[in-house]
Every structure is written in C-alpha cells, then in structure tokens.
Amino acid sequence: MQIFVTVLRAIVRFFQEADIFLLSICVAASVYGIILINSIVKNFSPSMGGQTAVQTWAMLIGIGLFVLFSYIDIDIIADKSRFLFLFSILFISTLFFWGVGEEEVNRGAWLRFGNIGIQPAEIVKVTFIIILARMIISFKERKTFNSILSIIQIFIVFAILFGFVLIVSQDMGTALVYFGILAIMLFAGGMKLRWFAIGAALITAATPLLWENFLSEKQQNRILAPFVPELVDPTRQGVLWQPDLSVQAIATGGWFGQGLGNGRLTQTAEAIPAQHTDFIMSAAGEEFGFIGCMVVIALLVTIVIRCVHVGLKSNNPLGMLVCIGIAGMLIVQMIMNIGMALGIMPVIGVTLPFFSYGGSSIVTSFAAMGIVSGVKMRPKPVRFRNL
C-alpha cells in the first residue's frame, strides 16, 4: 500500500511540476516524424518496413526516459563529471572493436545488437554538455573562467571527445555538433570575446593540416560541393546528386504539398538516399509543402525556446548552462540538417532532432528534454545561492 501511495504521489508531482508543455511538443514532433518515415519506407524493401515500428518504440522509450530524467538531480550527475568523461571515452572506444557502419558512408559509428543499433556519439553529446557545464561553473566559482589554464583544460576535454568521434566513428557531422555546443556554451558562460578571436585564428591556422591529414577525399568534396560545385561536381551526378533531388522534392511540393503518400520522389523506393534520416525534410516538403516544412521548423524552434526559457528561469547556473547547451545542440543540428536538404550546406550526415529515423537520436533527444524538465522541477541548490 505504501509503495502504491509513493508511486501515486510521484505521478501527481510529475504532472504538477514537470514540463508537460515541452513533453507535448516533443511528442508532436516525433509523431510527425513517424508519419513521414512511414510514408518514405512503405515502398522500400521488406527489411526496411519495420522502421516505423522501431521509431515508435524509440519514442515510447524516450518518453519513459523523459519521465525518469525529470526526477534526476542534474547537480548530482554533474558532480560525477570525471566519471562521465571516462564513460564517454570508453563508450566511444567500443567502436574500435565492435563498430559497424553504413556502406554508403563507410564509417563504423554504430554498435549493433541484432536489429538494434546504438550510436555512442549521439548519447555522449548529452554527457559532454553536462561535463562542460560542470567545468564552466567550477571555474566561475573560483573566478578563473577566463584564465588561460582554464581555457586549456576545457580545450583538452573537448579535443579528446571531438577527436574520438571524428577518428573512431569517422562521423564528421556529429563531431561538428560538438564544436557548436562548445561555442554556444562558452558564450553563454561568459567567455571573453578575445578568446573566441584567438580560437578562430588557431582554427584558421590549423585548417590546412586537418584538411590534408584527417579528411578523406570524399569528405573534402562534400564540404566543397555547395560552394564550388563547378570544380567538385560539374555534372552534378556525384556528391551534388542527392541534395539536388532533395531540393527538387521540396520545390515540387509547393505551398501545400502533393499529399501524404503522393510524393513522386518520396514514394519511389530509395529515390533520395537517406531520405528517412538525413533528408527527411525533403519528404515533408514534397508531401506537405512549404506549410509542412514551416510546421517542422516551428515545432523545433518552440522546443529550443522552451529549453532556453527553462534555463533562464531556473536560478541554477549549472542548470541554465545545461539547458542552453541542449538548446544549442538542437540549433546546430537544425541548421546543418535543413541546410543539407536545401543544398546550401555540405552533406555530412546530421539527423533532424525528433524527426529523422534513428533510435539513438530520438531516445537521446527525449532524455535531454527530461533533463531540462528536471531543471524546471528543482530549486536553486544551496551552493549556488551566492554565485
């Protein structure tokens, strides 16, 4: 009887204090994504027919994690940041031994357990946000955040994780999301602009070395294609073929689209490679038109604004930075993914949060939103009240 009462109180507290609005918007976005995925894959081979079910189950698991993380105190997790860093390194390192990839992109970014795939770099994005937030707050408590020693420590942590993601899984898109998260969180944390200027100069100086030694010719061509297409792919039958089809699909949708199940390219099996993952925006454009695309963007922007709002209202410096970091993660992925679909950014394999097919992506996104909800549920910790 006591257990029943405890569970009942927890449920009542969840609906009273958790961010139900945020959960509702996330579920709406995911359901929209599942509708698009189902429309895309229904004409594919039978082996792909179960992807709608996989995405639905991933959403349900994600909702469960949203509830769970709403009750977990982010400050307690952040206090174990060293263990989180070690876990992140070890988790990504498993790809050295058991990583498998997709043939068309030739990378080993997934751990496979039968039909279940786990992408460590997706999950580690959240741990990276928590680790970085803890470091920033620790340095600010000691009034050393803008010292060169603190900057070096932050850079070392970032460089290790960034390097592991880029080299071990060869996932340039996800690695760049880490870079975006870093820049946004440092800015939100109050880093002086001179450090951004120095960082930009160092990146510019290091670019030729990174370009020649860490990127394959295919990756180089993907980066250059949107900017100098006449040099990289003059016939537009190579790296530009996929984004050109995406732009064509979006353009043919007009204002209101061809209707669900009526998109010519969307309903042609594998007409646009990775349409259910990286190029899901093309399906929204072709079948639901400009209005459908605006609904996608509106849902994601609402989620971002809600994350920022919760962070600014939390009165918890660490919680604020975590919320800003999660919002930054979504913003970077939105810009990169939609830019790919419109042919104005390199095709480097970045999913659209809550919409693209991918169990790891949707589960991680819901867990991250649960962390935001948890920040909303808790008052400012004692140790931060004089910060």
Give an overview of the whole structure:
With 387 residues, the chain is an all-alpha fold. It has one domain (20-384). Helices cover 69% and strands 2% of the residues. The protein has 15 helices and three strands. The chain has a three-stranded antiparallel sheet. Strand 2 and strand 3 form a beta hairpin. Helix 2 (20-41) packs antiparallel against helix 15 and helix 6 runs parallel beside helix 8. The longest helix has 34 residues, at 280-313. The chain is globular and about 60 Å long. It starts with a helix and ends in a 10-residue tail after the last helix.
Summarize the structure.
The protein is mostly helical. The chain has 15 helices and 3 strands. About 70% of the residues lie in helices and about 0% in strands.
Topology:
Layout (H helix, E strand, L loop, with lengths): L1 H16 L2 H22 L9 H20 L3 H5 L2 H18 E2 L9 E4 L2 E3 L1 H22 L6 H21 L3 H18 L3 H22 L2 H8 L4 H4 L8 H13 L26 H34 L3 H25 L17 H19 L10
Antiparallel strand pairs: 1-2, 2-3
